[in-house]
Amino acid sequence: MLERNIIVVGASAGGVETLSQLVKALPADLPAAVFVTLHFPSYATSMLPQILNRCHTLPALHANDGDPIEPGRVYIAPPDYHLLLDNGHIRLDRGPRENGHRPAVDVMFRSAAQSYGQRTIGVILSGMLDDGTAGLKLIKAHGGVAIVQDPNEALFDGMVTSAIKNVKVDAILRLSDLAAQLVVLSQNPVEKDTPMSTNLEQEAEIVAQSKAKLEQGEHPETSPSMVTCPDCGGVLWELRDNGLIRYRCHVGHAYSSDSLLSGQTDLVEASLWSAVRALEEKAALAVRMAKQAQEQKRMYSEAQFLRRAEEARQQANVVRGVIATQIEPMQQVKDEG
Fold it and tell me: Is residue 49 part of a domain?
C-alpha cells in the first residue's frame, strides 16, 4: 500500500487570496506535502511564503533545488523557475515557458504524475485561461485524484472551468470542503497500479521525431501547424489527446489553445506599437531633413520632406486607431479565457 501524500496546487489570478483560505483550513499535522505553482512575472518578488505563514498552520517556503520532500510543508515555486517533483526531491528548472508562464502549473503537475502516480492529488484553483488542464489530465491518467475549486466561488473561473470541461475530475468543491477532502484523501492509502500512457507526456518526443522526419524528406505522423510560437517565432506543432489540443515548438515552448490565443494577442499589440514607433520616427527624421533643406534654400525638397512627415504622422494615427479598436476586444477575449 502507498500513501497518497503528494498534493499539487495550481492557481493564477485571485490565487493568493484563495491559497490563503485553503492553507488556513488545513491541519498542522497534514500527512502530505503541498506543492504550489502560482503564476508570477519573472522579475517579481514573491511574498507568498510570508503570506501563507500568517495562517499559522503548515510552514510555507520557496522550494530550493535538491530539497528533500517532507510532509506537512507547503513548497512554493519561486518566480522564473518551474517546480518539478523527482522521486523524493524537488528540482527547479528554467526550461522553456509553457502557456506563457514560468513557473507553469502543467510542468509541476506532469512531473508529479510521472513520479508519484496514484499518490498524487491535483488541485486547480482560481485563475484565468487554462494552465493546469493538461497536467491534471495526466494526473488522472496515472491514477491520481483531480479536484477543482467550485467555479461559482473562484474569483476567476477560467482555469477551473477548463479543467471541468476537459478532465473527468473527481470533485468540484468549495474551499472549506476542499480542505477537508484533502485531509481524508491523504489518510487513505492506495494500491500501486499501472498508469495509462498518453500523448501529453510524449509531446517533446513527438515533435522531435516529426521534425527529424521532415528534415529527412519523410512524411511525419504529426504535421506542423500554420501558427508560429509567440516566444521564439518557431513553428508550432499541433498535438491532440482525446479532444485536448496542445501546441509545442521544437525548442520546448508549449501552449494550450487559449494560452496560444493570449500569446498571439500580446504579439499583435507589440507589433502594432512597433509600427507606431517606426512611423513617428520616420516623421521626425523627415522634419529634420526638411529643416536642413530650408537652411540650404532647397524649397522644393523642404516641401517634399514636410509632406512625407505629415503622411507618416497620419499613418501612425491610423495604426493608433486600429490599436484602440482591436486591442480592447482581444483583451476581453483573453480575460474571459
Answer: yes
**215 pLDDT more than 70:** no
Catalytic site residue 250? Answer: no
Model's pTM, two decimal places? Answer: 0.80
Range of the domain at 84: 6-186
- Is-catalytic flag, 39? yes
Which of the 8 DSSP states describes residue 2?
Answer: B
- If one counts the domains in the chain, the total is 3
Secondary structure element (H or E) that encloses residue 36, with its range: strand 33-38
Which amino acid is located at 66 in the chain? Answer: G
Annotated active-site residue in 106, 130, 131, 241: 131
Catalytic residue among 12, 162, 256, 259: 12
193 assigned to some structural domain: no
Catalytic residue among 39, 82, 250, 253: 39
Band of residue 330 on the pLDDT scale cut at 50, 70, 90: very low
Q: Does 194 reside within a domain? A: no
**323: Cβ contacts below 8 Å, ≥ 6 apart:** 269, 272, 273, 276
Could you tell me the CATH number of the domain that includes residue 121?
A: 3.40.50.180
What pLDDT is stored for residue 200 in this prediction? 55
